[in-house]
Amino acid sequence: ADTGTATTTESGTESTQGSTSEESGLSDLPGQTESDCTLLEDLLSTLAGEPNPGVQQQLISEFIHAVTYGERGFPIAEGNKLAAVYWGDPGLDLALVGDFNGWEPSLDPMEEVVPGFYVRVTQLPAPASGLYKLVEGGTYFADPLARRFAWDEFGEYSQVDAIAGRSHYERWPDFDMSAGLLQPRTVTVYLPADAWQEQQPLPTLYMHDGQNLFAPDALWGGWQVGFTLDEAIGAAVLDPLLVVGVDNTSDRFDEYTQVGD
Questions:
Q1: Over the stretch 161-189, which tens digit does the pLDDT of each residue have?
Q2: Are 4 and 17 in contact (CB under 8 A)?
Q3: CATH domain 1-165 topology
């Protein structure tokens, strides 16, 4: 993998052209026969001929789930093509920005394909890498569908891929592959810097109350697990390890309490 060089972006974050998509995904997830780009093209073609809003919403939901649990997740990056989608309120003025276009909103506006579903597919001179965000009405925000993300002094940002020398997080929303009858929940994984270069599996720590582990804006400031591990691993106090943060749900008391109260 190319370790690349660092550059400073207009968002105030430092970007390093880094890894390929090989660091992403879980080997035991169901296989996917079609590429993410093909799935998106098929969806857009189907939506163009589908007048029923309910069917449209179902098609979009199935597409998002397929890509989210595919090999690399969002954004879709294949060759020199980069694609991002957003599913939310209708009538928004959205754009895709990042290291790949100098953080300039006018270069990559998103199209509202059907009410509330926005798409941007851009062809670049070289494969996209580094950081990106979405913009609406002058407000920059992280892609809520992005698999890879982290935080800096400007808040959460999204990553096209892993960045050499920098830790990041990967999200798996609505995870429902449980052994028992548990509610779906988000699973967030902390990956130390250059974890994708490791030749051997890393030790893994599983932690409950995932909502409180990593985000700096979590309740009472959160537990700052990622920040603490970055410091400890960087100082060689700890060897690199993964952390799997499992969110709680409305069943938290029953799930975390061994006996009836």
A1: 999 999 999 999 988 877 678 888 999 99
A2: yes
A3: Immunoglobulin-like (2.60.40)
For residue 193, what are the contacts with CB-CB under 8 A and spacing of at least 6? 164, 165, 166, 167, 230, 233, 234, 240
**If DSSP codes are grouped into helix, strand and coil, which group holds residue 25?**
coil
Tell me which amino acid residue 250 is.
Answer: S
Spell out, as residue ranges, where the chain has pLDDT lower than 50: 1-27
Which helix (H) or strand (E) segment holds residue 48: the answer is: helix 36-48
Q: Which residues contact 194 (CB under 8 A, 6 or more apart)?
A: 164, 165
CA distances from 207 to 40, 81, 189, 212, 247 (A): 34, 36, 10, 10, 9
Peptide bond connecting 125 to the previous residue in cis, omega within 30 degrees of 0: no
Superfamily of domain 167-261: Alpha/Beta hydrolase fold, catalytic domain (3.40.50.1820)
For residue range 120-150, what is the model confidence (pLDDT) as tens digits? 999 999 999 999 999 999 999 999 999 999 9
Strand partners, 172: 187
Of 101, 94, 82, nearest in space to 118 by CA: 94
- CATH 2.60.40.10 range(s) for the chain read 1-165
The secondary structure of 152-215 as a DSSP string is ETTEEEEESS--TT--EEEEEEEE---SSS---EEEEEEE-TTGGG-SSPPPEEEES-GGGTS-
**How would DSSP label each residue in 75-94?**
SEEETTEEEEEEES-SS--E
Q: Which segments of the chain belong to CATH 3.40.50.1820?
A: 167-261
